[in-house]
Amino acid sequence: MFPLLNDAAIEEMLYDSGDEGDDKDEIDTDYFIEENPEHTSSSSSDEGEENDDDNIPLSMLSGWQRKPFNGKPLPEDAVRDPGDIKTPYEYFERYFTDELMEQMALTTNQYYMANTGIQMKPVCSLLDIKKFFGIHAIVG
């Protein structure tokens, strides 16, 4: 069980007294509070013994209480038939529609013409945009 810091120890850490160059991690143990003194581990010289700190019931720790779980029922549309599972490409098509990709091709052509003053040859098409996204998906 780890001890808790009291307010004075926290305040001292926040407003350090100017020992900026000191690399030692020294903590004044006078500022520690024992959370559950009846469950503190006693040091033992036997290496084969287990530490009892791992076997403390949660009810003995501060803040833990056993309460019944009162869950809310799920809405009917939250539980779906496993047959509704789509492929990754179907999810991709849901957000990147052909209309959106056609708009991307059109604006690509417009951008090229605005910057160069001539029309792109060959013109960027829907298939070119799909290939572009496919290459990015494969490469990662």
Written overview of the protein:
The chain has 140 residues and is mainly alpha-helical. The protein has 2 domains: 1-39 and 58-69, no CATH class; 82-139, no CATH class. It is built from 4 helices and 2 strands. It has helices spanning 7-14, 88-95, 98-116, 126-139, and strands spanning 4-5, 32-33. It has a two-stranded antiparallel sheet with strand order 1-2.
Radius of gyration: 32 Å
Percent of sequence in beta strands:
under 5%
Overall domain count: 2
Q: Can you write the helix and strand succession as a string?
A: EHEHHH
Tell me the total number of β-strands. Answer: 2
Side by side, the strands of the main sheet go 1-2
Coarse shape: elongated
**Contiguous uncertain segments of 5+ residues:** 39-47
Number of helices: 4
Overall pLDDT metric: 77
Give helix % range.
Answer: 25-40%
- Structural class of the helices, strands and pairings? mainly alpha
The major β-sheet equals:
2 strands, antiparallel
Report the end-to-end length measured between terminal Cα atoms: 46 Å
Protein name: (apollo) hypothetical protein
Biased composition (Basic and acidic residues): 74-84
Organism: Parnassius apollo
Biased composition (Acidic residues): 13-35, 46-55
